[in-house]
Amino acid sequence: MCYDRGYELTEEECNVSLADFKAMYVDESGAVQRQRLAFHARPTPDMQKKYTPLPRPGNPEPAPDVGTIHVEFSPQPSVGIKDLKAFAQLLNEKNYHTGIFVAQAAPTSSALKIIPSILPTVMEIFKEEDLLVNISRHELVPKHTLLSPEDKKRLLERYRLKETQLPRIRMDDPMARYLGLKRGQVVKIIRKSETAG
């Protein structure tokens, strides 16, 4: 998922064989040591370009709205306020821009209230079962590509559209969550058409 978003990950990090995975992350009893699965990655220059807003008169050289991501897997069977506060504190201390917290079960509703309180740091929460299958590789899911602000501007000019006239994708859409989309971003969806071929 992080590779598909545009973070710097090597081929070896993305494609680990089962035997290597067991050697690195499984203990003698056969249980996965989730604490060892944590990693962080920097955005690629292409990703930084897609997340850099267009220059404006008050801001001629805008900074990209993306940074280092940290992914952590919860060893606890349930997630509460204490777990997410500790994760938020880690993101703040290490100065990570985005954090992905992968849990075995959905967090409590009171724990989810922490997420807006740590802005501008972005915290995303996924259940392990949601990440077992790479949905972007499924034959029924069309290819989604995030457009840069320049591409978005060209698209709107080409079709003489306002941003509000584009079709919308929900924030809780599985592909929107997978790609970590933010409000105002535009995604190009390439799929086979029954009428156009």
From TrEMBL:
Belongs to the archaeal Rpo5/eukaryotic RPB5 RNA polymerase subunit family. The lineage of its organism: Eukaryota, Fungi, Dikarya, Ascomycota, Pezizomycotina. One of its GO terms (cellular component) is RNA polymerase III complex. Residues 133-197 form the RNA polymerase subunit H/Rpb5 C-terminal domain. It is found in: Nucleus. Keywords: Nucleus, Transcription. It comes from Friedmanniomyces simplex. This is DNA-directed RNA polymerases I, II, and III subunit RPABC1. Gene3D superfamilies: RNA polymerase, Rpb5, N-terminal domain (3.40.1340.10), RPB5-like RNA polymerase subunit (3.90.940.20). GO terms for molecular function: DNA binding; DNA-directed RNA polymerase activity. InterPro entries: Arch_Rpo5/euc_Rpb5, RNA_pol_Rpb5_N, RNA_pol_Rpb5_N_sf, RNA_pol_subH/Rpb5_C, RPB5-like_sf. One of its GO terms (biological process) is tRNA transcription by RNA polymerase III. It holds the Pfam family RNA_pol_Rpb5_C. Its main location: nucleus. The keyword Transcription applies. Residues 1-89 form the RNA polymerase Rpb5 N-terminal domain. The keyword Transcription applies.
